[in-house]
Structures are given as structure tokens and as C-alpha cells.
Amino acid sequence: RPLRVRVDLIDTGEEPNLQLSLRDETESRRVEEMRREFIANVSHELKTPLAAIKGYAETVELAVQDDPDAALHFMKQITSQCLRLERLVHEMMQLARAQSGPANLHLSSVSLTEIVEDAIRTYEPVAIANDLELVPEVFPGKAKIIADREATLTIANNLIGNAIRYTPAGGEVRVSIEEDSDRWVLAVEDTGVGIPYSEHQRVFERFYRGSRNEESGKGGTGLGLAIVKHLTQAQDGEVSLESVPGQGSCFRVRLPAVASAELNRV
Ligand code: ADP
Q1: Which ligand 1 atom lies nearest to the CA of residue 218?
Q2: Can you tell me where the transmembrane regions are (predicted)?
Q3: Is the CB of 229 under 6 A from ligand 1?
Q4: Is 241 a pocket residue for ligand 1 (Cβ < 6 Å)?
Q5: Ligand 1 in reach of 74 Cβ (< 6 A)
Q6: Three-state SS at 82
Q7: Strand partners, 243
Q8: Which pLDDT tens digits describe the chain residue by residue (266 residues)?
Q9: Which string of b and e fits 54-77 if b means at least 16 CB within 10 Å?
Q10: Fewer CB near the terminus (10 Å): N or C of the chain?
Q11: Ligand 1: does its nearest atom lie under 6 Å from the Cβ of 94?
């Protein structure tokens, strides 16, 4: 990336003195560029369902007299687009919160096991409805971590939700908790469509949707993994991905364990 330098010649008012001031603006320009790009993305994402709602509503107006069945069909489309808008706004709020870092989180000693069990309870019916097996591996005790309960639940929900969404019927989603020195690791593994290596970084970018999944019309927001990444980093954790297209994916989130010395006190 080229270094952007701002050069100012300042007249100090005391002729013939001029001051030369140099400022590296690389970072501030980058932030400004990201902000502009984000707003452009948000406008686009909001405009699409709004345009659809407007179109459907106009069609309903025309159809309501002569063709009540068609009107009902378009009303359902309106409801579905409203749900999409609602989800977008909710996820954008979650992302904004995640991006503002640890300041918005309440870090305390919480049980990763209990949080993951909560997420599994939420997704069990979804897995059954999609003819998938959701397999919780036997979890090791409480797996105490220093984390924000809500944020960690969002991470688990997003990963399990994605694993279910991107795994065809008959497949399996395996959720486990592993110990790794001073970290507890949540692993969500699926036998789904997988992610090409060239997209491993990009899937964590906001609004990025996999190339093939846009075609398949899965209708996601592209925010889920960006939220996972920012919430994990805000909690001093790391997220990683292994995947083989056509075979499946495994997302791992490592979060700081409560030190064993402290465990006796909490
Ligand atoms: P989306 O709302 O599109 O699911 P995410 O940020 O959660 O947004 O994911 C970004 C992209 O990463 C998805 O569009 C999809 O292509 C890919 N992806 C995420 N999770 C999985 C998974 N478990 N298996 C395959 N692809 C996935």
C-alpha cells in the first residue's frame, strides 16, 4: 500500500518564515475508505428488500380486487422481505457492537459448556427440520472461560446456524469443546458444501457471501462471520477455519480459559 503523506506549507505570519508540516495519513484514509464502503454496502443491502417490498405492495394494490390469491402470494413475499430487513438491522447492530471492541462487553468467568448447550437447544429443531444430525460431543465439565456470555452465545449460534445452512440433508454437524493449554476451543464441524481456500479470508469480511451460495439463493446477510470474528477478537480470542470444498468445514474459536489458580475462587 502506498504511503499517503499530507504536506502543508504554513505561513507563520512572521515573514519570511514558512513551516513545512508532513503527516502520514495512510491510516486515517484507510478508515475513511472503509467507512464509505460500509455505508455503500449498507445502503445497497437495505435498498434491495425495500425495492422488493414497494414492488410487491404495488402489485397487491392491483390484484386485491380481481385476484385475491395472487394478492395473498405477494403479501407473503412482503412479509418475507420484512423479515430479511429485520434480520439485517439486527445483525448490523450486533456488528457495530462487536466492532467497538471490549468496551461494550462484560467479561466474567462463564461456562463455555453451558453456553454451547444453550445454542444446541436452539438449533436442535432446525437441524431436525433440515434432516441433519446435530451431534454434541461429550463436553468436558464447565470449560470456564473469561468472556461475555451474550457475545459467546452469538458466536456459537452463528457458527452452528451456518453449519446447518450450508450442509445438505442427510449430513452431520458436530459441536465439540477442546482444551488447548490456556484456551478453551469451540469447534463446529460440518459435512457440508465447504469453502474454497481462496475464500477463507474473505468469508470473515462483512457482507461477503460465498460465490456459489449467492447463486443458490441462500439469502444470508453476509454478516454472521464478521460478527463472529469481531466478537472473538474483542474477547482476546482467535477464530480459524479449515475446509475442503465438497467435504465440509470446521470453524474453531479459541477463548481464554480461567486460569486454574483462579478456578478455586470462582
Ligand atoms: P451468510 O449470511 O451469507 O451466511 P456469513 O458471514 O455467516 O454470511 O458467511 C459468509 C459466507 O461464508 C457464506 O455466504 C458462505 O458462503 C460461507 N460459509 C459460512 N459458513 C459456512 C459453512 N459452514 N459451510 C460452507 N460455507 C460457509
Answers
A1: 3
A2: none
A3: no
A4: no
A5: no
A6: helix
A7: 249
A8: 667 777 777 777 777 677 777 888 888 888 888 888 888 888 988 999 999 999 999 999 988 888 999 999 999 999 999 999 999 999 999 999 898 888 889 999 999 999 999 999 999 999 999 999 999 998 888 999 999 999 999 999 999 999 999 999 999 999 999 999 899 999 999 999 999 999 999 999 999 998 766 545 566 889 999 999 999 999 999 999 999 999 999 999 999 999 866 666 55
A9: eebeebbeebeeeeeeebeebbeb
A10: N
A11: no
Q: How far apart are CA 99 and CA 118, in angstroms?
A: 24
Which grid coordinates belong to 86? 429485520
Q: Produce one character per residue of 20-52: b if its CB has 16 or more CB atoms within 10 Å, e if not.
A: eeeeeeeeeeeeeeeeeebeebeeebeeebeeb
Residue 173 DSSP label = E
With a threshold of 0.95, tell me whether the complex ipTM lies above it: yes
What's the pTM value of the predicted model, to 2 decimals?
A: 0.84
Mutate which of 173, 193, 203 for ligand 1 pocket (most atoms within 8 A of beta carbon):
203
